[in-house]
Amino acid sequence: MSWNDYYRRQAALDAVLAHVRHNPEGPLSVADVPLAAEVFTDTDELLLALHHRWMLRLTGRLEVAAAEADRDPAPDRVGAASAAWRAAAEESPVLHRLLEAHDTEALRPVREAEQRLLALSSGLADDDESPEEATRIGAAHLALLRSTPAEVAAPPRRPSAVGLLRRLVASA
């Protein structure tokens, strides 16, 4: 793929998201957006490209959350991964809602990869778990995230004593 092809694909994805921004849950067809019809062969290919965009956002958020959790002596990896998933969903609400509403069979392998990533990032599954088990754990975590309002899921955190000491040392 050339750079021109890459930028054309990105423009097509942006055009699709702009087209569905008022109703991401509605029907989706490549034919509805002329640029998308030129770039993608069918709706499944379009959905896979949109899911790739979602995974780039989610993976970035999860990596930042993991790095921050590693600096804290008492990390809450489940909370950090949950907050990262919610932040990615808030950052790209149209993309997130569109993918939630159009969960086709073509997306199953990438959805399962997303579930495994979430299970591993949250520490609910280990690297030695079977892919099926990690997928099951990640699916349960996602179901909980979807069903729990963000206000309830993220109570205010009290800073740890070590964290407070680090701030004092840094300011001295």
TrEMBL record:
Domain of life of the native organism: Bacteria
Name assigned to this protein: Transcriptional regulator, TetR family
